[in-house]
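Researcher: I'm preparing a figure for a lab meeting and need a structural model of a single chain. I don't have an experimental structure, so a prediction will have to do for now. The sequence is pasted below. Please return the structure as tokens so I can convert it later.
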Amino acid sequence: MKTRVLQICGTGSGVGKSVIVTALCRIFLQDGYKVCPFKAQNMSLNSFVTSGGAEMGRAQVTQALSCRILPHADMNPVLLKPMTDIGSQVIVQGRPVGNKTARQYQQKNYKQQLFLKVKESFGRLKKEYNMLVIEGAGSPAEINLKRHDIVNLKMAAYAKAPVILLGDIDKGGVFASLVGTLQLLDKGERRLIKGFIINKFRGDKSLLKSGIRFLERKTKKPVLGVIPYFKDITMPEEDSVALDGLAKKAQYYQRVKGAIKITIIQLPHISNFTDFDAFKREPDISLDYIDDASRFDNPDLIIIPGTKNTIEDLIWLKDSGLADKIISALKRKEPAFVAGICGGYQILGKKIYDTYAVESKKKQINGLGILPTVTFLEKDKVLTQVRAREVSSGLEVFGYEIHHGRSRNLGGYQPAFQITERAGKRVKDFDGVLADRKNILGTYIHGLFDADNFRRDFLNRIRVKKGWLALNNAVSTNLNTEFERLADLVRKNIDMKLLYKILKAGI
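Model: Understood. Here is the structure written out token by token.
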């Protein structure tokens, strides 16, 4: 069977490209295709480590799971992980190749080299799958970026992929965005765009009829469907270049009266915040992200998450007053529980050394001094999947490690986990620290709270400390049901016959 290729582009960032691609992946799978997602270049601090020890964007991992296939770095051959406002670590086919400023990255010769890698990865996937769903990035009409584009319409042209342009009506101005995007493309680029989807609509669709008629008449291109706004289907979040406003977005809040209060510190360079998505499914959790000390409200559990720039975020934590709040919470009559994941684990320690300037020009910095550890930032990056057992409970967890730091336990407290498997091989290593009255946890394992039984047991320890009864039933975090519900929603609201017609015709 000939390999079909489709690309979803958007009028901007945050319009829902990743979610729509995830839905289409499952729809095409339901329709009998061997499906694979692809995004040539992703910019995200939410990354994942494959079974082969390669790093890739979390969105393509979710899409791969929707296709019922294992994630592979070829699905996201270029990953940019912002470290500063103007610079990122560059990951190529799963491996870090160095840090680049935005200007350095956009140089013609460099982008040409990267596009060769993109084509390599795409070629391998095309041989293995008969349906590829490509996700664009941002907008294809960014005038300053088009010249050296490797992810939007240049990718579509190379892949011979018809493009569906996605607009977000919830942002406002969706018709102007769709028409304006087309107007900023040249004639050849416009020919690649075969239709539109309007996303995140609230209310009566009949009210859109006049707008849709105008759009189709103006552009001579069809509207394939209008996707309703939804809140009841849970998908892992994907961040963008900046995470400004994370703590202010309602979808990140979960407030339940008489529940365990969890506060997650929104670090300026927060990474892998999908580590905590599983908490949102629990019935006894009140969850909040904060970046302001004035909003610190005596939580039961404080989580310091991963970060792409541990040293800068440690300085920010101290300057913001949040460090003092965390330390004070440990001195309460009923001390808070504190968990540090990866960079958060390093922050909880006594010192961090950056001899090789991996993150900063600072050679060393004092941590919060909560854990008896010191961390050395090394040039080589640890990228591996792991399975482990919590030392105190024996409960199994699974996840991945992704860090430059090597942390040393100075003694006095037990390790948190015994690593039983690393990169598919049996091992007997230890990870992290469980300190004080077992209420301070530091670990390098991302995703450990996805282990349903461990997460429930961990929350029950807090419940018992509060004098509450433990809850017996662990909530499942299986995404398969969510993929099915998402696919059903999208299938019902777009013209699949027209979409298949577009696919067959190609470009």
